[in-house]
Amino acid sequence: MRALNTAATGMMAQELNVEVISNNIANMRTTGYKRQRAEFQDLLYETERRVGSTTSDQGTMVPAGIQIGSGVRTAATPRVMSQGDVTQTQKELDVAVRGEGYFRIQLPDGRTAYTRDGSFERDAQGQLVTADGYVVDPGITIPENASGITINPQGVVSGTLPGQTAPTEFGQLQLSRFVNKTGLEALGDNLFLETAASGQPQTGTAGIDGMGNLLQGYLEQANVNSVSEISDLIAAQRAYEMNSKVVSAADQMLQSATGMFR
């Protein structure tokens, strides 16, 4: 009975749906996290009577045929790249992007990664790095004796050196944006990689040509809505239970049919 296999595909789809939802909930407090959602497609159909086929020599046609579906499959788990809430941290090296754009991060293997997580630190050489020690691209070095560090909306990093009254510029943060943000590949550690689907990065200055502005002392929170996630979780659980009931019903029908031949 094909109902068993069809219901099984429904159970597997909802199991994956719950896994996606659980990851969203687990990352509710992850800086710059972008929620995912599961998208589904129906599987191939077995046609037993084709729509529009003729039923007589006079040309009469079948108005509605017979097609039996074979279940469901997961098509994609795209990320929702909407802006998360921006909250104040009062930490001078925390930077949030309000609008389009990703910070560029240089990985140890030479690749360039992209992130919305602007919780930066200084390493032993004074370079601006991520929480994992990856260097922010372009490299910006802040002297140890610099004070009053400021990052303006265009990403210019400056501070005051001993014996000077005017601030000194140490470098400028740049942002990159993509034609298809959902095409980025998640690497973990709040990082994304460019792919053929995302298109090549368009790099520029914050606040110019559609790039977002930078906010010093702020961080972007995850764009996860706890209410909607719990609602989706309940719906997925109910769908899973309904598919399991189909399995039970199909099994009972098979047992009844088998019993008739005993």
Automatic annotation (TrEMBL):
Belongs to the flagella basal body rod proteins family. Keywords: Bacterial flagellum, Cell projection, Cilium, Flagellum. Residues 216-259 form the Flagellar basal-body/hook protein C-terminal domain. The basal body constitutes a major portion of the flagellar organelle and consists of four rings (L,P,S, and M) mounted on a central rod. The rod consists of about 26 subunits of FlgG in the distal portion, and FlgB, FlgC and FlgF are thought to build up the proximal portion of the rod with about 6 subunits each. Residues 96-158 form the Flagellar hook protein FlgE/F/G-like D1 domain. It is found in: Bacterial flagellum basal body. It comes from Labrys wisconsinensis. Residues 4-34 form the Flagellar basal body rod protein N-terminal domain. InterPro entries: Flag_bb_rod_N (IPR001444), Flagellar_basal_body_rod_CS (IPR019776), Flagellar_FlgE/F/G (IPR020013), Flg_bb/hook_C_dom (IPR010930), FlgE/F/G-like (IPR037925), FlgG_G_neg (IPR012834), LlgE_F_G-like_D1 (IPR053967). PANTHER family: FLAGELLAR BASAL-BODY ROD PROTEIN FLGG (PTHR30435:SF19), FLAGELLAR PROTEIN (PTHR30435). PROSITE patterns: FLAGELLA_BB_ROD (PS00588). This is Flagellar basal-body rod protein FlgG.
